[in-house]
Amino acid sequence: MISAAATAPLLSGERGEYALANGEDALPYLQTMHSAANAGFMIPEQVWDSEEPTSYGHELGRSTGSASSLSWAMAQYVRLAAGVDNGSPVERPANVAARYASGATFSTPELDLSSPAALSTADAASTTVAGTTNASRVYVSVNGTVTEAPVTAGADGVGSFSLDVPLTGAKNKIVVAGVAADGGTAQEETTVLYYGTRLGALADPSGDDNGPGSYTYPTNPAYVPGAFDLTGVEVYDAGENYAFVTTIAGEVTNPWGGQGISHQRVNIYLGTGAGGSTPGLPGTNINVEHGWDSVIVTDGRFDGAGVFSPDGTRTSAVSLLAVPEARQIVTRVPKAALGSLDPATARMSVAMFGNAEAGEGTGNVRPVYDGDYWAAGDPSWIKEWRFGGGAGVFDGGLDSRDTDTRDPNALDVIVGEGQSQAAVLDWRAGSPVVVPMVGLTN
Ligand SMILES: [Ca+2]
Ligand SMILES: [Ca+2]
Ligand SMILES: [Ca+2]
């Protein structure tokens, strides 16, 4: 609200009330507010507080063009005028005065949380909040619902508490407050995640978000390091849904206002492991090791997310939840959308792409271009907005926008035990490359 060279008249009113409460003359503050009013006696939100001329024509002590009148400022003027007339502020909330104006100081109790661990994922819809404190009372809030946790007295006045609390969402904010006998307080906060019953996970190393070893990110700073670096996928049974939790090494950012995410496009292909190598979705430039029945697409933009069948039909919507604190992207998939496939026993291929707008590449997948072409940056937007280190150059006449689609557009994939991603994604050795199907482990 207050910029470098503008000031808020209403704050003069607050200063005036402070002066009044200290037995000082508050009239100059009232006059300062009065002077800021415009020709219609309306007090603005901000006035210019500098002699420097501006291209906007602002004048010292006059409105910057902000809200006039600002009802908050007008009300403050009336409060101060009434206070000056009264000889003291006309309103002083008793609880606030008792806390801050009595001169009393309060103790800050010790409060240590031993459980739950910050950003841990609970394996049931409840968690135990436990710790030690010398406070006389402890309150636990989960997503705003408050319960008192009984404190058991211990040696040296340090007691303990332990309370099982229900987790009511995926992301559960837990606030623990300790209240000392004199009313002093201490507070601790933590977040616990809950996605359902864990079915298993796939792990991936960090630092391999370079496809076959040569791929580079677009240079625009929106593409933060690690944005396409898979570190794992965990799968949870959540009643009507499965939750597929993709974790990345970089920050989960959303600069373009997507549904939780702006950059990533994750494909998780599911099948029974039967059949031979089968093409992935158009634009991916990959094959999947075996036949697949469904692919879960996680993408925050252009209505790109959903469950798709091999013929490209969207068979189900999915819901996305970004959990930046834990670098997670959660995709909830209705169980019915996967038919008889059970993720606990299915085989799956996981691949990370950069998403694209219509017209940037086939199937909302961002293309990868030749390394030298990309590095030359001609035209300059190629380097800024596309991936390099692959094959081909931009051609606006092609649906793929790419003269060579032998190279996979995947930045990172999950490979099996003993396999090398660099070898798996090496299109020069054979194209299309074949991404392995793997099963969940615990
Ligand atoms: Ca990785
Ligand atoms: Ca290419
Ligand atoms: Ca990998």
- Classify the helix fraction into a percent range: 10-25%
Biggest sheet, open or closed, and with what strands and sense?
6 strands, antiparallel
Extended strand count? 27
Rg from C-alpha positions?
Answer: 30 Å
Number of helices: 7
**What coarse outline follows from CA principal-axis ratios?**
flat
Q: Say what oligomer this is.
A: single chain
* CATH topology description of the largest domain: Immunoglobulin-like
Adjacency order of strands in the biggest sheet: 20-19-18-15-23-26
State the end-to-end CA separation.
51 Å
Q: What portion of residues belong to β-strands?
A: 25-35%
The CATH architecture of the largest domain can be named as Sandwich
What does this structure look like?
The chain is α+β, with helices and mostly antiparallel strands. The chain folds into three domains: 6-100, no CATH class; 111-194, Sandwich (Immunoglobulin-like); 197-435, Immunoglobulin-like, CATH 2.60.40.1190. The protein contains seven helices and 27 strands. The protein has helices at residues 9-21, 27-35, 71-86, 94-100, 371-376, 380-385, 421-424, and strands at 6-7, 47-48, 111-115, 121-122, 126-133, 137-142, 145-149, 151-152, 159-166, 171-179, 185-194, 197-203, 230-238, 241-248, 264-271, 278-279, 286-288, 294-299, 306-308, 314-316, 319-323, 328-334, 347-354, 368-370, 387-390, 412-413, 433-435. It has a six-stranded antiparallel sheet with strand order 20-19-18-15-23-26, with no helix packed on it. A five-stranded mixed sheet has the order 4-11-10-6-7, with no helix packed on it. The structure holds calcium ion (3 copies). Residues 367-369, 390-392, 402, 404-405, 407 line the site of one calcium ion (CA). One calcium ion binds next to strand 26.
